[in-house]
Amino acid sequence: QVQLVESGGGSVQPGGSLRLSCVFSGKFFTLYDMGWYRQAPGKQRELVASLESGGTTIYGDSVKGRFTISRANFENTLYLQMNSLEPEDTAVYYCNAVLRQVRHDFWGQGTQVTVSS
């Protein structure tokens, strides 16, 4: 089994930065496609950024140029560097790990990000 634990959320003013972390507990971290999703109140969960095991990255249109996803394989950790934060970025951010070959799809518990003046 895989467990994902997010951290790094909090409250920040518009224009500020945060770095989210997601620690992967389990085997074969390097084989998993990893991603960050977010869900704001009353809205559907949406992709923020994904990083496949082969290195391909995908970003949601609203965060391109502001957010950067990365992974440290030696630490079994996924990161999301968020810069130039806007009130519209306020949401619960979730870490996701997928290994399609064995139909594994795991989620973390989420971390709250609030952007407000």
Summarize it.
The protein is mainly β. The chain has no helices and eleven strands.
Sheet/helix structural class:
mainly beta
- Percent helix among the residues? under 10%
Instruction: Tell me, rounded to a whole number, the average pLDDT.
Output: 97
Rg on CA atoms, Å: 14 Å
> Oligomerization state of this entry?
single chain
Number of helices: 0
- Main sheet summary: 7 strands, mixed
The residue ranges in which pLDDT falls below 50 over 5 or more consecutive positions are: none
How far from one another are the termini?
40 Å
H and E string: EEEEEEEEEEE
What general outline do the C-alpha atoms trace? globular
Q: Strand content of the residues, in percent?
A: over 45%
Please describe what this structure looks like:
Helices cover 0% and strands 53% of the residues. With 117 residues, it is mostly beta strands. Strands 2, 4, 5, 6, 9, 10 and 11 form a seven-stranded mixed sheet that branches. A four-stranded antiparallel sheet has the order 1-3-8-7, with no helix packed on it. The radius of gyration is 14 Å and the shape is globular. The model has no long low-confidence stretch (mean pLDDT 97).
Quickly list its features.
single chain, 117 residues, mainly beta, four-stranded antiparallel sheet, 0% helix
Chart the SSEs and their pairings:
Blueprint: E1 3-7, E2 10-12, E3 18-25, E4 33-39, E5 46-51, E6 57-59, E7 67-72, E8 77-82, E9 91-99, E10 104-107, E11 111-115
